[in-house]
Every structure is written in structure tokens, then in C-alpha cells.
Amino acid sequence: MKMFINRISRIAVILISGLILNACQNSEQNKLNSLEYSLFAEQSDDTNLLNAPDFTLTMMNGEPFTLSEHQDKIVILNIWATWCPPCRDEIPDFIEIQNEMEDDVLFVGISTDEEGWEVVRPFAEEFQINYPLVVDNGIISNLYGPIRGIPMSFVINREGKVEYVIPGMINKETLQPVLERLVNQNS
Known about the structure:
The chain is 40% helix and 18% strand.
């Protein structure tokens, strides 16, 4: 009986801690990760879209990448890691779309690998990634979080607003028509 009470007490502490942590999250961050911004949610109009938080991180070539400098394109921020199988599976599709739509679309890979460039650089070279890569130093998690899992992608329109949040893996057949619609809507 005492073990049962201890187990229930532990579960209660975990649940209460989770509620407190979730309640302390920035409401704008929680909105970014809500289902209303999911690729699969029906978007009614642009008036309720949130601004994509701006950031600057260093790319693999040592140059800075600043999100707000790319408002002439549809930007897909893809949060990933080298050790993540679904992340690895979607990268070839991203490379293809980047090649096909490079005038209008820009993928940005945001690695969450703790080892940083030590593991990201050889991975990028092996996969021949053709879009900018940066390593998150905590800024993306703070601005776009909570990041509950990877891969996770954010589709940002030319006005710098988050059109969609894509939790989990996505393939070319699903993503490319959405990107084409966004490109054509802004032409």
C-alpha cells in the first residue's frame, strides 16, 4: 500500500510540474505551436497569422544568417538533428524542392545537435545539403518553442508571418503544393 501511495505521489508531482511549466511558456510561443497553424488546419485569412520571430545565427560557412533579410522568399525553418531518422529521411526532399524552387523558396536547417558543427558539417557534406544550415544555441528553442519533438518545420510567408507549423516529418508530395500555392498567391 505504501508503494502505491508513493507511486501516486510521484505521478501527481510530475503532472503538477508539467502544468506549471506549460503555464509559464510565452503565449506567443504556444500560439506558434498550436494546431491552428498546422499545415493541416484550414487557414481562414492572414489577419490572425503571427510574425515569425527574427533571429541571427552563424551558418556553416561562418557568415551570419538573419531571418528578416529573406522576406523576398517563402522560408521553411526546419528544426532537425543528425541522429534523427525522420529528419534524415526528409532532407533529400528538401534538397529537391530547394533546387526546383530556389527563386522563391529558401529552406533553413536548424540543427539541435549538442555537438554542433563537429557532427553537422560532415553530415551536410555527406548529404550534399544545398541550403543554409545553422546550429541552434538555444535562441530558436526560446523564440519558437516549446519544441516538443523533431523534425519540426515552420513555413514563413514573404510578409514574415508564420503560415504553417509542421510537427513531424513531411514529404515533397505534401509540402511542394503548399509552397507553390504560397508562391502563386504572392506573385
